[in-house]
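## Example record

The block below lists the input lines for one assembly entry, exactly as stored, with component labels intact.
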Amino acid sequence: MTPGFDNPVLGAQSSFRAMLHALSHPGRIIRLADLPAAPAPLAPAAGAAALAMCDADTLLWHDAGEQAAAWLRFHTGAPWGAPREARFAIATGAPPPLAGFCLGSDEAPQDGATLLLQVAGLEAAAGWLLTGPGIQHETALCVTGLPPGFVAERAALGALFPRGLDIILCADALIAALPRTTSIRERA
Amino acid sequence: MNAALTGYNFGYLDEATKRMIRRALLKAVCIPGHQVPFGAREMPLPYGWGTGGIQVTASVLGPDDVLKVIDQGADDTTNAVSIRRFFNRVAGVATTESTAEATIIQTRHRIPETPLSEGQILVYQVPMPEPLFRLEPRVAESTRLHAMAEYGLMQVKLYEDIARQGEVATSYNHPVMVNHRYLMSPSPIPAFDNPKMHMNAGLQLFGAGREKRIYAVPPYTDVRSLDFEDHPFKPVRAPHACAICGSEESYLDEVITDDQGGRMHVCSDTDYCASRPPV
Ligand SMILES: [Zn+2]
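Predicted structure tokens for the full assembly:
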């Protein structure tokens, strides 16, 4: 079993703050400082986010295989959940249909899941233009390694607001967030 | 690194409680203005002390943070001093009275005059998070009204206040619409401070301990005070200059100076006032 955070208390705090900052500034790329030795195919950033936020009270779905499953279970105690019921989800490959995740209800939209979606690369460059709360004008974000049709599939959830899915893109030690309020415009 | 920074209870709360509050905080940021319920543990503090704000601060705080605490704008009230000492003791964090130097500012009843910058976090202590509670005391019903964005009731009440008193009478705790969707209580800040919430560069977090609710306004988010076309919202300020620094922009407190009825107006924000040359 590979270790979690060097210091579980401070590792959880710094990873949470990175996620809070990322969700407050959608599309901004944030480097996580405390990284656990997450087994492949888990990205270190996705492992850090899961260790910081998950515990016995949060159903966790992932597609990362047996070794990662044992590691996540050991360090978080989070029980397994199907996409429809999980509060946290980690997709190391192409995710299941986004509309199939828990999206909360109009009265309890906070029940909508957080999806840690691993991608090949994140760059503050031309690709997407993001707008919405947390963004003063526009934020440019270039993401590589997403399945085709991702932007349209996510945009279809926008009409359901306040229900929705909050996505944190993870690439190695980097994260960039797409809360449900963010609009993505693809540059031609 | 001292014991407070490495110990299991860094920041006072246990790790499971912090995780629960942190999960609520992340969702609050994703749904601006929506009240997220959380299962607060009972804290050995009277509610008036600001347990909601303290729980949020304790869950956010890290060893590199610099904490400022204000009560009605002042850093030196008993309440502000005790909360600052409390966090210095349980978390070993640095504290400051300077708005510009702070990374986290816990506040009761004011927004600092000095504009926040990106990366700063303002934590409000909230006594009553529900803006509809005077009109609709049933929690299940107010939750439904928020879900449907049915805010006609609040509009009617505000309009009645105008009809009765000639202007928007809610000079404190004047409700706001966040991101064109959620009606939100700004906590009992003066209406004068409401415009500072709009498109603020800082992150605004709200903690209500008794009602066990957390809500948030992300940076650069639209926040509008509820008003009417024929009676636009007017942030009121006493028509005086501060007797100490001469400011004609800051929010003023009226201070009684003697028992002969003498009084003067001074900035409520003590850090802002002290940073300006005296008149
Ligand atoms: Zn002054």
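Confidence is low (pLDDT under 50) at residues 1-8 of chain B. Residues B 242, 244-245, 247, 250, 266-267, 273 surround zinc ion (CB under 6 Å).
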